[in-house]
Design goal:
homodimer, about 180 residues, alpha+beta, four-stranded antiparallel β-sheet, about 25% strand, DNA-binding
DNA sequence: AACATTAATTATCATATGTAAAGTACTTTC
DNA sequence: GAAAGTACTTTACATATGATAATTAATGTT
């Protein structure tokens, strides 16, 4: 499953895959619990095998969802992993979940001896970069209603899995405002 | 100059640097001219030696600035370079500029034989990823006024170099709205 | 220098979103 | 199963931003 995801970015040999696997652990986390709390420096790349999660932070007491992640996706707080600074963001499970944790420091140590692994993760990060650019475009010049409709199109079942208050803050609006948008069907 | 920038991400040997240099060209572009027009597939990584540029696109006749880039920075339309799809975005010079163009296809071909070059660009892309995440945070939950002040703090001389209309669309607001924000000092 | 074009500001009005408060429905806990 | 808590909606009002149009300022062209 993890390997299938990897292969979709860059084919790796059995040996390379096993080298990565060596530094992975499977975690079972309950709904509403944190995979990583606010304030810790991110040293792990997570892969969601089952469940869904959100990256969140507080702005003046307001709980803001930066992103959602569902099965078969990677979750990383890049701004912490790539700078070495503590993250003001946490990762919370929105459903009971099964998570594969990859030790990032150990993984990065593999790069000099396993170029294919470095290539794999370079391509994964490139893909993430494209996702972020698209998100910026959406936030910069779409109305809240357009962003809501786009989100439903991209993740049709998100309404069944994620509380509306998180969707609201993800869209950059208040729950009241989201209610209004939903009401005018 | 380019090498100094590279070194700030990852030290490369003379040989590696020369391998990259082989696929670079220096361009002189006049103010208001396009470095790359809308609709072309991005196959080049640009480095700004002198001048400043913006990535822009149209949304229903409205000319939107996605990002600004100044001296000593890299400009790439990731969503095109990393997907191979034509970009609906262009790159325009806002001042007469001197640009170093790196042929991305040739560069990527160096990766298997020059692992240090791959590492260098992985780190550059990681840095860009962090920048994009920060931009998302700014767009998602700051008011237009906060975003304006943050921009001035980050690029204090931007007002002298960039027309306000571009700054407005970069902030996700109309020029009229930016005028108002500036008026209430 | 005169003219034409574009950029920026200001004013007015319309609309979208925020804030606060109250009500309803759903969950959780004991 | 009652009580408490949480999520969501609705209403009323406040504020920020958008749209349009008119004016002034700045820039480019001949």
């Amino acid at each position: 499953m993890l390997r299938a995801l990897f292969n979709s970015f860059h084919k790796v040999s059995d040996e390379d895959y096993q080298a990565i696997e060596q530094f992975t652990a499977t975690l079972h986390i309950k709904k509403n619990h944190d995979l990583q709390p606010i304030g810790h420096t991110c040293k792990t790349i997570y892969f969601i095998k089952k469940g869904c999660a959100r990256i969140y932070y507080f702005k003046e007491d307001i709980n803001i969802t930066e992103s959602f992640s569902f099965e078969n996706n990677i979750v990383v707080r890049y701004e912490s992993l790539f700078t070495g600074r503590p993250s003001k963001k946490g990762i919370q499970l929105l459903e009971d979940g099964e998570i594969i944790a990859i030790n990032a420091a150990k993984l990065f140590e593999l790069f000099p001896t396993h170029p294919a692994i470095e290539t794999l993760f370079r391509k994964i990060f490139q893909h993430c970069l494209v996702e972020q650019v698209n998100r910026i475009e959406s936030l910069q010049f779409h109305t809240a209603e357009e962003r809501y409709k786009d989100l439903l199109q991209l993740s049709p079942n998100i309404l069944q899995r994620v509380p509306l208050k998180h969707i609201a803050s993800y869209l950059g609006i208040t729950p009241v405002s989201l209610s209004r948008i939903r009401a005018q069907h």
